Amino acid sequence: MTRERKRLLLRLDPAVHDALARWAADELRSTNAQIEFLLRKALDEAGRMPRDVGRMRGPGRPAKNDPGTTTSGEDDEE
Prior knowledge:
This protein has 78 residues and is mainly α. Helices cover 36% and strands 0% of the residues. Residues 49-78 are annotated as: Disordered.
């Protein structure tokens, strides 16, 4: 069962975006994936992570034979 990912318009200060983009690159993530990673971490630390949340893929490029790989560009946010 694959749940459709939600889209969100997020306005950021350009300096914050640049810092996030650099941090994401250092961890081999897209800016979008880095924001999701940080939000999940904050939810978990606050005890607010939903029980039914899906697992996030690890950093780096997915293997070419990874069935969870999407080609729709939904994670390309830079």
